[in-house]
Hints:
Oligomer: single chain
Helix content: 25-40%
Largest sheet: 5 strands, mixed
Radius of gyration: 21 Å
Strand order of the largest sheet: 6-9-10-11-12
Order of helices and strands: HHEHEEHHHHEEHHEHHEEEEEHE
Number of strands: 12
Amino acid sequence: MTVLAQRMRAQRLSDRAATTEELLDSVLALQAQDVNALRLAARARGVQSLTGPIVRTWAMRGTLHLMLLDDLWVLGPLSTLIVQRGKRRRLELGLTDDLCARALPALREILTEPLTRSAVVTRLAVVGIALDPKSQAPAHLMAYAAANGVLYRTLDDEYALLPDLPEPGTVEQLWRRYRRAYGPATVDDFVAWSGLPKSQARDLPELADEPAPPTGGTTRMLGHFDTYLLGYKDRSLALDPAHARLIQTGGGFLTPHVVVDGRVVATWRRTATGFAVHPFGDRPDVAAEVADLARFLGVDGELTWDGGLVPAR
């Protein structure tokens, strides 16, 4: 199908990237709250090791994403919304507007090197910003500071100071970059992906999508939180609604799944000796993907099959 072929190419699933920078220049961002899942997403798109001028920060939908440093212009249309949506929870945790305002210059002062969250809390206490290390207050303060362009979270789950940011972007710029990474797609898809209110997405320009050659047997094993499905509000073209509950289990969580030519055809999981695949119908040819995934993870690559899954009615 032409649309799925275009989306697979845009997401670098059929036309794989050679480097981290090439990948992120195409897809803009990869979901990154789970680093292991992030690495699986990069592998599926051809990248074996995440290197280069990259940052992991809260962006679309207020969730962690990996992006190129030069693409942090996306905070322009997103940061105010992230801060506003997190305010109620911050106040519940004692993070008043005054405390947050004082914390930003304090964080710039103490982040002389990448630090763990506990080390950040310790150093903040020394400069008069006291946080309960057993609460969620430190995590929410870090997200607030990231949205304000102060810090980012490394792949080692440490916090580091951001260099000077690029000029803030606009909603239209974000729309254009989204369409390059996910098109063909609709404004409703963009709103769902970005987390922006639909009122900010009015009057966006119509954009044409580059034609893509049809795929033929492109098979990828995708992990939790993969951006291929998360990029759309309406996922029915790629995921049969009859199987949706097997993949979409709530809270933005996606069960690891197998995609063939853009269609989700199975789920998969790790086993003690390799991988088990649960097809929705005919068994897909996953031998090459299983072998590559086993190599990437450094595990055994035995393939086992479970009976076709039938969702509860």
